[in-house]
Write a structure and sequence with these properties.
Blueprint: E1 9-10, H1 31-34, H2 38-46, H3 55-63, H4 69-83, E2 85-86, H5 95-101, E3 103-104, H6 106-119, E4 124-131, E5 147-154, E6 157-161, H7 163-166, E7 168-171, E8 176-179, H8 190-193, E9 197-199, H9 213-218, E10 221-222, H10 224-229, E11 231-235, E12 240-243, E13 249-255, E14 264-268, E15 278-283, E16 288-294, E17 301-309, E18 312-321
Helix pairs in contact: 2-4, 3-6, 4-6, 5-6
């Protein structure tokens, strides 16, 4: 994902070498994620669009040359992601109407994925719950679920997946979605997924230790690029922070598969022009990286702060400077 890094509070340094980090909140190198999906992707991308009028007509020829459950699921997932656009103009959860208009919101995406997978002989369930996209979602205790995604059973094991979010990439600076296939939401780990998805039915957290909805509501924003670069935030965990402008802001991260020479940017709002006054970075014997930065003295009131690694958005906070 590419971001236009305009008007930033900039911090750049080299991360020292560190030990192996924990993997519970970052994507693990699971067998299914290492699977070669080139064939399935090619079939999905070259499958004739508009030739078939029903999802039941699409499934059989779409999967005809595939044998493994992983490839069958991938070709269905990829076909939906590439052929259905996100649009509020079609809020139906009727899969046939989604096919007809090639447009949907999460209800339509999750319903279509379930029905196409079921038609292909795969077990797939719809999960309803709450989502977290950016700082506006921090502290929002919505009574009714605002999002829907799926669980898919492959080789006897359940996995979480979100085809809606896989259709687009979210530009944190412009706060807009752009049509682009995002593999982060294909078969993500439960630890990464819970940062942005909180299911109404707790069994679909699929975590060894369940988390409370209150934690999800108050927690910081966690972006999909954190999963891609292998980063987990240790502290702070809350999304709203009261920050004394005279004191350092401390960010503690665990880093997995991280490269040397990474640039770290703290971006404040979309048009705030200031220069970082001071920063320090150190590593601990537990494989964590501690970043301390001093914000400009003139900064006051509430501001959204997003942290970027080499242009990739990692996490975000809503900070009240005083």
């Amino acid at each position: 994902m590419r971001y236009l890094l305009i008007a930033i509070l900039f911090l750049s340094f080299t991360i020292p070498a560190i030990g192996q980090a924990q993997k519970d909140f970052v994507r693990q190198d699971m067998d299914l994620n290492l699977f070669d999906y080139k064939r399935a992707d090619s079939i999905a991308l070259h499958f004739p669009k508009g030739k078939y009028k029903s999802y039941t007509e699409i499934v059989a020829p779409l999967i005809s040359n595939l044998r493994t459950e992983q490839e069958i699921f991938r070709v269905i997932f990829r076909w939906i992601a590439d052929n259905v656009s996100y649009s509020y103009s079609n809020k139906t959860d009727d899969p046939e109407k989604v096919i007809k208009k090639d447009k949907a919101v999460c209800a339509g995406y999750s319903s279509l994925l379930k029905e196409m997978c079921n038609s292909a002989g795969l077990e797939c369930e719809i999960i309803s719950g709450w989502s977290k996209v950016d700082q506006d979602d921090i502290g929002q205790n919505k009574k009714e679920p605002d999002h829907a995604w799926n669980a898919i059973k492959l080789d006897g094991k359940w996995y979480l997946t979100d085809v809606t979010w896989a259709t687009s990439s979210y530009d944190k600076m412009k706060r807009k979605f752009h049509k682009e296939f995002d593999t982060s939401y294909f078969l993500p780990t439960p630890g990464f997924f819970i940062e942005q998805h909180f299911p109404k039915d707790k069994k679909w957290q699929m975590l060894d230790t369940l988390v409370k909805k209150s934690w999800f509501i108050k927690s910081r924003v966690w972006y999909e690029d954190a999963d891609k670069v292998g980063v987990k935030i240790i502290n702070p965990t809350k999304g709203r922070i009261n920050q004394n402008i005279k004191k350092d802001f401390t960010l503690i991260l665990q880093v997995n598969r991280f490269k040397l020479g990474t640039n770290i940017d703290f971006i404040i709002d979309n048009n705030f022009k200031q220069t970082q006054e001071s920063e320090t970075v150190s590593n601990t014997d537990k494989g964590s990286v501690t970043i301390k930065c001093r914000f400009p003295k003139g900064l006051k009131g509430e501001h959204d702060v997003n942290v970027y690694f080499d242009g990739q958005a990692i996490c975000g906070f809503r900070m009240n400077f005083h």
